[in-house]
Amino acid sequence: MSRKAVITGGRRDEIISVAMKLFFENGYEPTSVRMIMDQVGGEIGMFYHYFRSKDVLFDCVVEKFFADYRKEADTIISSCSDPDSLVDAFLPSYTRAMQQFGKIENNMHWTIRYAMSAKTIQSLLPSVIALLDSWKLPYGIKSDVAAGQLVYGISGTIHTKTFEKMSMKKKKACLKEYIDLVLRGSSIS
To answer: Is 4 a residue whose pLDDT tops 90?
Structure first.
């Protein structure tokens, strides 16, 4: 007997939302299907109607997390008219995201942390490319190349212990200087 097609929305979305909350609170491994379904108020059979496994559910959670993250990032990034406004808008959002992620990162296998970091970068690149296109970069700088340099470089910077210990003012100055260096330095052919 084949499985019925599963429609998105309703109980499926509720399971994903509850799972996201529990994964963030407890981590992936300690969160059981039973815990999720107890909070949803459904039976285990309902879970397996919507998802083949906890891994498949986790993929859906990650997809939803990044869809929400991308939407927020698009809103923030598209409103920025220059590097200063980008840094001023980005850092508070980044700080909130890292606080949320910090609740679960110690409960995750390193491969999941790495995949989430890579997915974050991938989700930001289209928005940053569009932003740089709107800034009309000088010297024939290609926006996709500059966006890659910025997003990967900023990611490397913000995940250092030194950056984490800086005051917000120093963090902003550091990122603004880096963006300026990339955008001015990219003119070298």
So the answer is: no
- Does 106 fall in a domain? yes
- Write the secondary structure of the chain as one string of H (helix), E (strand) and C (coil): CCCCCCCCCHHHHHHHHHHHHHHHHHCCCCCCHHHHHHHHCCCHHHHHHHCCCHHHHHHHHHHHHHHHHHHHHHHHHHCCCCHHHHHHHHHHHHHHHHHHHHHHHCCCCHHHHHHHHHHHHHHHHHHHHHHHHHHCCCCCCCHHHHHHHHHHHHHHHHCCHHHHHCCHHHHHHHHHHHHHHHHHHCCCC
Q: 95 lies in which domain range?
A: 59-185
pLDDT at 30: 87
- Structural domain count of the chain: 1
Question: 127 or 111: whose pLDDT is higher?
Answer: 127
The predicted model scores a pTM of 0.69
Per-residue pLDDT, averaged over 106-117, amounts to: 72
